[in-house]
């Protein structure tokens, strides 16, 4: 049935321990919205919803008239659905994985390799690095979303080295003074920053546990006395320590920017960018890979040497980490997040309450459409039958196919569409 090119998907949930629990999770609420029969366990974490054809989470096709069971099988049988440019560029594979994340406790401090490093890590340690692809990714906030991202401006790091003696003890005076003297020279700054971060990540366990305990005790006492602990980043330190007691990653807050995205704001994480998501809900899109180099705030495999060697040691302010979206020239309801990689782009489609008819336009790329809010009757010449779209619905749209919506909700609609704009 090759003529069917638009169909609904039933997507895979990942129950990682850091996810929000039960119906506190936006992932769980979207799953229930898309399928009122879904069973949500109130004590279980619902961390990620995977929308795509990744082998660890290949979406099921939600139409038993289609013989292929999963999206991956469908694309393998009909690679033309990707669009000719996408099919040729990415060798007949869907190049992106689209997700929703609901974060309750911090994810690991991590970075993703570029293609060259990914190939090397996969060849050497396939059990830890399962494929040879790079993994740039972009997070778009659905609720207030908090993360660590990239190295802070130098004056902030130097301020912490001055105000947090426990942090300075891990780095050592020599490396701290080297960092101070490198100010104004970008090359020397990068080298000195690398030395300081590597020193911290490799310091003896007894030293960092003792210093962390002293720091937690000091900040707790200052908070109890009603004193301002912001010079030591006190609130975040205590929160991470309560989630991952005795973890070296707690000290990373003195190196990395804390970024708080408001709904609709985004951050793009290119290769070698250190980051950790801390809390909130987001839509995420990435190249189709599962390669992550971790070094703290995690019970998983950590690879400190690789992480310290690969990172981009370029200090930059929080404002430089917020990735802008652009309103589409031809459709005022579309806001495009178009990162500097070929693998993926994301559109936020915001249909106002006054609009009743809307067409999800045809693109030269296959796309996946997720409904966050609102309802509509959906029609497409490339679908087996009309479909009802509502909160939690996920639709696969082949290249060069459009979908007409008759909006039935009184408050308009919010949707996200992942695609590949070559």
| Gyration radius over CA | 23 Å
Largest sheet, in brief, is: 9 strands, antiparallel
Number of strands: 25
The general outline is elongated
Bin the strand percentage.
25-35%
Average pLDDT score: 96
Helix content: 25-40%
Structural class: alpha+beta
Q: What is the straight-line distance between the termini?
A: 28 Å
Number of separate helices: 11
Which segments are poorly predicted (pLDDT under 50) over 5 or more consecutive residues?
A: none
Notable traits:
single chain; 422 residues; alpha+beta; 9-stranded antiparallel sheet; 8-stranded antiparallel sheet; 25 strands; 27% helix; elongated
Structure report:
It holds the Pfam family PMI_typeI_cat. Residues 170-256 form the Phosphomannose isomerase type I helical insertion domain. With 422 residues, this protein is of the alpha+beta class. The chain is built from 11 helices and 25 strands. The protein has helices at 26-34, 71-77, 84-89, 115-124, 154-163, 165-171, 173-181, 186-202, 205-224, 234-243, 304-310; strands at residues 6-10, 12-14, 20-21, 45-46, 48-51, 60-61, 96-103, 110-111, 137-141, 145-151, 256-261, 266-269, 275-287, 293-294, 322-323, 326-327, 334-337, 345-351, 357-360, 367-373, 376-379, 387-389, 394-397, 403-407, 413-419. The strands form 5 sheets. Strands 2, 5, 7, 9, 10, 11, 12, 13 and 15 form a 9-stranded antiparallel beta sheet that branches. The protein has an 8-stranded antiparallel beta sheet with strand order 6-1-23-20-25-18-17-16, with no helix packed on it. Helix 6 runs antiparallel to helix 9 and helix 9 (205-224) crosses helix 10. The longest helix has 20 residues, at 205-224. The model has no long low-confidence stretch (mean pLDDT 96).
């Amino acid at each position: 049935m090759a003529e069917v090119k638009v169909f609904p998907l039933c997507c895979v949930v990942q129950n990682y321990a850091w996810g929000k629990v039960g119906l506190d999770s936006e992932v769980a609420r979207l799953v229930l919205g898309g399928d009122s029969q879904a069973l949500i366990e109130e004590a279980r974490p619902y961390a990620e919803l995977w929308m795509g054809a990744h082998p660890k989470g290949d979406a099921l096709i939600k139409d038993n008239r289609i013989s292929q069971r999963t999206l991956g099988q469908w694309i393998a049988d009909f690679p033309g659905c990707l669009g000719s440019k996408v099919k040729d560029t990415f060798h007949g594979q869907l190049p992106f994985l689209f997700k929703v994340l609901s974060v309750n406790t911090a994810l690991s401090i991590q970075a993703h390799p570029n293609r060259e490093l990914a190939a090397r890590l996969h060849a050497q340690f396939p059990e830890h690095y399962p494929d040879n692809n790079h993994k740039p990714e972009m997070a778009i906030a659905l609720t207030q979303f908090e993360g660590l991202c990239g190295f802070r401006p130098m004056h902030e790091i130097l301020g912490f080295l001055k105000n947090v003696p426990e942090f300075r003890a891990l780095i050592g005076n020599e490396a701290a003074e080297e960092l101070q003297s490198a100010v104004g020279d970008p090359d020397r700054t990068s080298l000195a920053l690398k030395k300081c971060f590597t020193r911290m990540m490799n310091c003896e366990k007894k030293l960092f546990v003792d210093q962390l305990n002293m720091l937690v005790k000091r900040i707790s006492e200052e908070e109890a006395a009603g004193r301002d602990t912001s010079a030591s980043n006190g609130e975040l330190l205590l929160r991470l320590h309560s989630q991952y007691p005795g973890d070296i990653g707690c000290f990373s807050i003195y190196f990395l920017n804390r970024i708080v995205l408001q709904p609709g704001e985004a951050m793009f994480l290119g290769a070698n960018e250190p980051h950790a998501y801390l809390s909130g809900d987001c839509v995420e899109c990435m190249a189709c890979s599962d390669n992550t180099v971790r070094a703290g705030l995690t019970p998983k495999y950590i690879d400190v040497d690789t992480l310290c060697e690969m990172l981009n040691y370029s200090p930059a302010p929080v404002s430089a980490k917020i990735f802008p979206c652009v309103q589409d020239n031809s459709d005022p309801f579309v806001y495009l997040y178009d990162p500097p990689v070929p693998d993926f782009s994301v559109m936020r489609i915001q249909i106002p309450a006054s609009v009743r008819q809307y067409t999800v336009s045809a693109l030269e790329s296959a796309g996946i459409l997720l409904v966050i809010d609102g309802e509509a009757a959906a029609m497409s010449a490339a679908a087996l039958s009309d479909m009802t779209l509502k909160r939690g619905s996920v639709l696969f749209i082949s290249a060069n196919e459009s979908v007409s919506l008759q909006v039935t909700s009184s408050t308009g609609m919010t949707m996200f569409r992942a695609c590949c704009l070559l």
